[in-house]
Automatic annotation (TrEMBL):
<dbReference type="InterPro" id="IPR001279">
    <property type="entry name" value="Metallo-B-lactamas"/>
</dbReference>
<keyword id="KW-0862">Zinc</keyword>
<dbReference type="GO" id="GO:0016787">
    <property type="term" value="F:hydrolase activity"/>
</dbReference>
<keyword id="KW-0479">Metal-binding</keyword>
<dbReference type="Pfam" id="PF00753">
    <property type="entry name" value="Lactamase_B"/>
</dbReference>
<dbReference type="InterPro" id="IPR051453">
    <property type="entry name" value="MBL_Glyoxalase_II"/>
</dbReference>
<dbReference type="GO" id="GO:0046872">
    <property type="term" value="F:metal ion binding"/>
</dbReference>
<keyword id="KW-0378">Hydrolase</keyword>
<protein>
    <submittedName>
        <fullName>Glyoxylase-like metal-dependent hydrolase (Beta-lactamase superfamily II)</fullName>
    </submittedName>
</protein>
<feature type="domain" description="Metallo-beta-lactamase">
    <location>
        <begin position="12"/>
        <end position="194"/>
    </location>
</feature>
<dbReference type="InterPro" id="IPR036866">
    <property type="entry name" value="RibonucZ/Hydroxyglut_hydro"/>
</dbReference>
Length: 212
């Protein structure tokens, strides 16, 4: 599996394009809001001659869903969100103007994902793991064969996701990192929702919020 990373919106959110040798692709957390950001994402798809099969959200805070509607319409593909994020997703329309985001359009999800329900594209199968704490229904996407984790806002390089937003729970997040992320192999690469990628082993040794 190949991974392209694009950084979008005022929150510096990581949008990921995942694809394999079949050229089938999944867009994870399209955060593109401005027109130039949308064009940048589409250009990456076209330059790599990809066929977008699906858009998925790790969770549904505003910075991770801004491009859902536009990309779903442009590529004519379904949108999947975690089942525990439906209420968080609906709330974005209410609070977006408070952040100066006045052109947001809510996309209708085609599926509410359940934990353990695989994400399939081309020859790739991602496992879905529910890791709440940053948000109530947050998912991470794991490709064990390549020791890769698309981690959303659960774990950052030497940091963790904030827990002061509605539905956040600090103790729950720490416990879930220990039991669901730190139990993965140390050389698992974690691609977070913000900032540079890291590894499970590095975080177990150096993360000041939760040591392994």
């Amino acid at each position: 599996m190949e991974i392209k990373t694009l950084v979008f919106n005022p929150f510096y959110e990581n949008t990921y394009i995942l694809f394999d040798e079949t050229k089938e692709a999944v867009i994870v957390d399209p955060g593109c809001y401005e027109d130039y950001e949308r064009k940048e994402l589409i250009a990456q798809i076209e330059q790599n001659d990809l066929n977008v099969k699906l858009i998925v959200n790790t969770h549904c805070h505003i910075d991770h869903v801004l491009g859902n509607y536009y990309m779903k319409e442009h590529f004519g593909c379904p949108l999947w969100i975690p089942e525990g994020e439906a209420e968080i997703f609906r709330a974005v329309t209410v609070y977006a103007p408070q952040w100066g985001i006045t052109q947001y359009t809510e996309a209708q999800p085609d599926k509410l994902m359940k934990e353990g329900e695989p994400i399939r594209f081309g020859n790739t199968v991602l496992n879905t793991i529910c890791v709440p704490g940053h948000s109530p229904g947050h998912f991470v996407f794991h490709l064990p064969e390549e020791q890769t984790l698309i981690g959303g806002d659960v774990l950052f390089k030497e940091s963790i996701g904030r827990t002061d937003l509605p539905g956040g729970d600090h103790d729950q997040l720490l416990q879930n990192i220990k039991s669901k992320v730190y139990t993965l192999p140390d050389d698992t690469t974690v691609y977070p929702g913000h900032g540079p990628h890291t590894t499970v082993g590095h975080e177990k040794l150096h993360n000041p919020f939760v040591k392994g």
